[in-house]
Design goal:
about 375 residues; alpha/beta; 13 helices
């Protein structure tokens, strides 16, 4: 039993070490000279009146007037669309538009915006996000390579100073680490629609979201998989640097956080992919192994020693690897935050895993059941 746990933590450390090395060697696309692309930034929204005032001022500051910005209202009930309409009237921004969703849901809203856009490159983000300066320039660089059809970038929550928001940042670091790793293997598992760009022609060629419109979430991952199937495993790129980091707000409470993660995790059943199944099962098995190590406390001195070695190594490796990811974005959680997160993360993973089996979650006031 003790040998099993020692082997498990050694394997875990080796895997994270390999991901860290890969992160440090991630692709970089230098600026290109010549004619730029026509770009449209799409922002679907539903009940975002809390975030829109700061977003509108932020976009006016960092986005040039020549770039299309299209807001698509997905049946808001809090007056979000009136905030945008009023802003557009006062500012007289000619390339900014407000559209009404021609259907229901985020996929329909994006499709509405894509069909309306005149640009070659579609970029997407969410209404609760803030973009770095020159974000659109960096995200467009890979498209100078003709075979690149889709580019994904990192998303990170901002810290509110409390442990819960720091836990979310550390957990986000693990998501970004895994995302970068599988993109580098040409076997991407996921990406975020809050920081995404793709050729409009590629979207049209793969039939957009056809085949999964009925699912409430997954606009980003389903499109990613369709583009890879149609254009090959060299057709996507992932940019991990701070220059393209999109910042978003942390979940305000534990319930909202778990609902969000259940929504994300529930998509693995819809991909019908062995790769997704194995990754999901591997994550949950590792979490169960980590929690199961608690039983070593009730053994003899050797068992107790193995327990201490197991968790000390786990904390050290996670701080070194995930700390490296966070350092990329000038985020420096305390040692205490890493220790607490290391203990709580397996509990969180198992909780989300069990909730995912039911496939039920609520998002933007809409309920979805992923049992298929």
């Amino acid at each position: 039993m003790e040998l099993f746990y020692l082997m498990s933590i050694a394997l875990y450390a080796l895997l994270l070490g390999a991901m860290k090395k890969n992160w440090e060697e991630s692709s970089f696309y230098p600026p290109q000279q010549g004619k730029g692309f026509r770009i449209a930034l799409l922002i679907p929204f539903r009940n975002e009146s809390q975030h829109l005032p700061s977003l509108l001022l932020h976009l006016e500051k960092i986005i040039p007037p020549s770039l299309e910005i299209i807001f698509i209202n997905d049946n808001s009930g809090d007056g979000s669309e009136y905030l945008i309409a009023s802003f557009l009237r006062v500012r007289n921004l000619k390339n900014w538009e407000l559209l009404e969703n021609s259907g229901i849901g985020k996929k329909a809203a994006l499709t509405t915006g894509i069909h309306h856009a005149e640009a070659e490159i579609i970029m997407t983000t969410d209404a609760d996000c803030l973009l770095p300066e020159d974000w659109y320039r960096w995200m467009s660089q890979p498209f100078y390579l003709d075979h690149i059809q889709l580019v994904a970038g990192p998303v990170m929550t901002v810290s509110q100073g409390d442990f819960f928001s720091k836990f979310q940042q550390i957990e986000w670091a693990s998501i970004l680490l895994v995302t970068q790793y599988f993109f580098s293997l040409r076997r991407p598992l996921m990406c975020s629609g809050a920081n995404l760009a793709y050729r409009k022609s590629a979207f049209m060629m793969v039939g957009g979201y056809g085949g999964n419109e009925e699912h409430l979430s997954g606009d980003d991952e389903f499109l990613l998989k369709k583009i890879i199937r149609n254009f090959g495993d060299q057709s996507t790129a992932y940019l991990s640097r701070e220059a393209v980091l999109v910042k978003t707000q942390p979940a305000p409470c534990l319930g909202a956080f778990l609902q969000q993660r259940v929504r994300w995790a529930s998509k693995w059943k819809l991909h019908r992919s062995v790769k997704h199944v194995l990754f999901a099962l591997g994550s949950y098995v590792m979490a169960m192994v980590q929690l199961g190590s608690v039983f070593l406390i009730f053994g003899d001195v050797w068992s107790k020693t193995v327990f201490l070695v197991f968790w000390i190594l786990k904390i050290i490796v996670e701080k070194k690897v995930l700390g490296r990811v966070l350092n990329e974005y000038a985020i420096h959680p305390t040692v205490s935050s890493f220790i607490k997160t290391s203990y709580l993360h397996p509990v969180y993973l198992i909780t989300v895993g069990l909730a995912t089996l039911g496939g039920k979650f609520t998002w933007k006031g809409r309920k979805s059941n992923y049992i298929v």
